[in-house]
Amino acid sequence: MRILATFRIAGRALRRNKMRSVLTMLGIIIGVGSVIAAVSITTGATKQVEDKVASMGLNVITIFSGNFTSGGMRGGWGSAPTLTLEDTAAIQNEVPGVVAISPEVRDREQILANGLNWNTQTLGESPDFVQIRNWDISSGTMFSDQDVRTLAKVAVVGKTVTDQLFPDSNPLGQTLRIRDIPFKIVGLLAPKGFNLWGQDQDDVVIVPYTSHMKRITSRTFVNSILVQAVSAEAIDQVQNHITDVLLARHRSVEQDFTVRNQVELMQAATATARIMSVLLGAIASVSLIVGGIGIMNIMLVSVTERTREIGIRMAVGARARDILVQFLIEAVTLSAVGGLIGIALGIIATQIVAYFTHWPTVTPLVWVGAACISSAVIGVISGFYPAWKASRLDPIEALRYE
Q: For residue range 104-140, what is the model confidence (pLDDT) as tens digits?
């Protein structure tokens, strides 16, 4: 019963000075609200980047053709044709944990169809490409391994190409021409939109890599090789095996290829968002510290104003511990209530920002819990000294205080 009475006394003390209590909580409200809003916005931005990376495929490893050194001339990755179809076969046969693979040939071509023309990216791929890139076929089918073996003149096209060349008709079964070579459209890719680098992923025509290499460009090498690992946990192991296999095959003095995985891409893409999250969170946290200092100041003033009240309570039997607990309860209540209001206002502010800017926002529950705990801890820390000071007052001196 004594602790309940202490809570009632603390509540009455806060209600007597409503305006001062609200102003005291303001620092905590602003601090917690700022933290929640900052974390929600930056977490949403990070999630958006991660989703865009995931849309490029699951557990993907990309091998790029490598660098060259010739006399005094040197070039970085992609500057020399160092990858071949034999490398692709070696990776598929010798590297455990590979579930899909596609040698990739890239070019830009002016294509003709339906009396219209359009300059677009043409990709030579294997049938595994749509699995590796996690890309659905919205209509029709992907070309088959048989099409690859027979150098079939078939194509799968993206939404942008469809809109540009077949605005008023269904492109399935129709023919488009690449370098005056007719290719039958057998499938339509589901829309993907723009990637991390602002490139339109739907502006593409995909043909069997053998058809691209033999019929369109007459190449003997591939630009890159896409590999899908069996799981995210196996990516590093598969990547190391790929490097070992290619080093053994190429027998070059320096590594003439570059291997990158999706985890590295995601880390690089989200690095800026993570840094901004930390910076914004740190700046907003300053408001929490200021709010704690404000609570301490007000509680010290309250101790001074209520010195005579404290003396009377001690004179009628209140112990020092009761006085300590009372003032701690007042400080924690101010901080906790301010924290809850701050959380609510932070979430509301986040939704307002999302509504007007169309930015994605995510409010992590762990941060909501952390804000609640932080508010209570700040209340205890900022209220302890004033509470301790109140509990140490001499009852006789307190009764004489005017």
A: 999 999 999 988 999 999 999 999 999 998 899 999 9
Domain end marker among 223, 246, 280: 223
> How many Å apart are CA 19 and CA 11, to the nearest integer?
14
* 244 domain residue, yes or no: no
Q: 229 lies in a domain? A: no
- Partnered with residue 62 across adjacent β-strands are 226, 260
Nearest residue to 153 via CA among 177, 137, 129, 188: 177
Q: Is the dihedral of CA 252, 258, 263, 267 positive or negative?
A: positive
Are the beta carbons of 225 and 101 closer than 8 angstroms? yes
CB 77 within 8 A of CB 217: no
Does some domain include residue 97? no
Q: How far is CA 222 from CA 102, 105, 107, 191, 267, in A?
A: 10, 5, 11, 26, 27
Q: Kindly report the backbone phi and psi dihedral angles of residue 82, in degrees, each rounded to the nearest multiple of 5, phi listed first.
A: -110, -5
Is 376 within 8 Å of 332 (Cβ atoms)? yes
Half-sphere exposure of 340 (CA within 13 A, CB side): 5
Q: What is the pLDDT of residues 304-344, one digit of tens each?
A: 666 666 666 676 666 777 777 777 777 778 778 888 888 89
- Give the three-class secondary structure for 267: helix
Query: How confident is the model at residue 1, as a pLDDT?
Result: 39
In a domain, 372, yes or no: yes
**Separation of alpha carbons 328 and 379, rounded Å:** 8
- Does residue 312 sit in the same domain as residue 367? yes
Structural domain span for residue 382: 2-52+269-400
Residue 19 sits in the same domain as residue 129:
no
Q: How is residue 212 written in tokens?
A: 């691209």
The tens digit of pLDDT for each residue in 17-67 reads 777 777 777 878 887 888 888 888 877 877 777 676 666 677 899 998 865
Pick the closest to residue 310 from 299, 30, 332, 379 (CA basis). 299
CA–CA gap between residue 295 and residue 289 (Å, rounded): 10
- Model-level pTM greater than 0.90? no
Closest among 357, 303, 347 to 328, alpha carbons compared: 303
